[in-house]
Each structure stands twice: as C-alpha cells, then as structure tokens.
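Review this fold:
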Amino acid sequence: MEVEEILNECRDLVEQVCVKFGYDSQDTEGNKSLKTVLLEVIPAMLKDSKKEDRLLFYQMLSHTPIVVTENLTQESYNKLLEQYIGENVNQHITEENIELGEYGKNLGAGAYVSEPILDENMNLQGKKSFIYIQKVTKKAKEFLGTDINVPHLIHELGHAWHAEKDQFVMLDDGTLKERIGTAEFIFSFSKTPDNKFIKKCTKTTGLMIEESLNTIAEEMAMANYKGIPIEEMQKEYKISFVPSSYQGYMADFVRFMLEKLGKDDFENYRLYGETESKNKINALMQKTDYWINREADILPSSNSPRNYDKKRAVLGKINSAR
C-alpha cells in the first residue's frame, strides 16, 4: 500500500489519539509537533504492510500513550510509571530484578513500558502500557526537523506493535509468558507467608533477534520518513545519532537470516507468535552454515571471532540508549 493511502487511512485515528492523550499538535518553525511526526512516521513504518497488520498497529496506537520528555531521571520515570501504569497495580506482587547486563542499567532515550494486570488470585485481567521518548540534540533536531527522537519513536512503536497480540498469557503451570515480537520471557511466582507473591524471570529467549529485527525495520522506516536511500540513512545514524550495537554486529547477522529465510515468516512470528512460522524458521536455520558449523564456529569451545562468548562480550556493551 502506498504512503498516501496509509496517510488517508490513519489520519482520523491520529486526530483521535492526539485529543485522547493530549499530544502536542502545534508545529513551530523547525520543530514539528508529535501529531505531525506521527502522520509522517506511521506511513513510513506501514508501507507495504498487510491490512491485518496495520489494524493491529492502529489498535496498539489507540491505547498506548506516547510521552515526549527530556532529561529523564529515575524520579521522573517513577512518576510516569505512577501516571500511566498506576501505583495500585499488582501491589501484591514484588518483582525480582531481571539481569540483562548493560542492557538494563540505565534509562534509555526511549522505551516501551508495559505491565500485566494480575488480580489477587493471579488471574490475568489485562495490561497497561506507555511509550516514552526523550528529546534529541541540536544536530539531530536539524536533521529530523523536530526535537522528538524519531528513530527511537519508530523503534518503540515497533516493539509495542509486535507486542499487541497476546503479549501476556498465563500458562497452565501457573507461570506467566510475555511475548514482545520474537522475545519471550517466562515468569514464575512464589507465595510469601503474608499471601503476597514474588515474581521471578526464569527464562528469556529471542531478545537479541527481536532487537535486531526491530532495528532493521527502524532503519527502513527512517529512510522512508526522510525519503532517502537506506544506505544514506545508515550513514546518517553515525553522524547525528548514537548508533547501538544492533545497528552493526547483530543487525548484520539478522540481515543474513532474512536474506536466506525470507521476511514473511519472521514477521508472522513477531506479530502473532505463530508457532508454525517459528518452527519453519528453526528448520531453515538448521540448514545454514551458522547452524551446521556451530560446534567449531559459534559455541564457547570455539576460537572463532563469532563464538558465543565473544558475541556476548560485544552485546554486553550495548548502548544504554537501546
């Protein structure tokens, strides 16, 4: 579907969410408002997408507030949590910290924040979520035409979009599964003597692939947003922004997978968690050199630059902006 058609399709919804969430709708010289940015970003992101997928994006946009802020501190972030998630949500649950290394240490330039709503019997009642985006530097503002960090806005909208379908599911064994695209988290709960619960993340899979797929989609959307070739956009990241490791090491690996395996199954898996697509990806991956040579090439026993420990060392230095 062409950009102009998508713009016509989404215009009324953008008007509605701007009123609903109080988004800035007034452009000033050299600084586009969030309303204008959304009207440009959405067609850039959804170009060539299927109607079913776009409807899922619109559904997400209608209930996920976007907050544009600057100089975000832990204190102001806590206020956002109180405002958009609510201080009374899951008061009976204490969450153990998830160990994500450098990835989780600092408040980034943007994030999709979500929380399941669980009643006192641990029944899933829904979720609350929001996106925050910090403002950009003067150099980036000149390139973007706005102080809104458009690449991060696209990136976090991408995560929210791919988490819209069944993000949280309570499993038969009493654990909670969270899915954001290809990233899956399993949480267990242990009851305390005072009838409260401790929530612990016991398993994480697909996080790096999700970040990389989302980054590749972000770069393409940014090229559409600016109306420039993807190669030129990738160069611009190095000039006006602080690129993450995903825009290098991991993104190259995932581009290889997309080239060999195709985009459709990855997108179906990201958007809908389709097991058939996941199994197809795994089956095809087993035919690649990456899989065939894994014993000598990527496992910890290998001396290859691509071995797992060396990858982990690189990924441990992920920029806090992601």
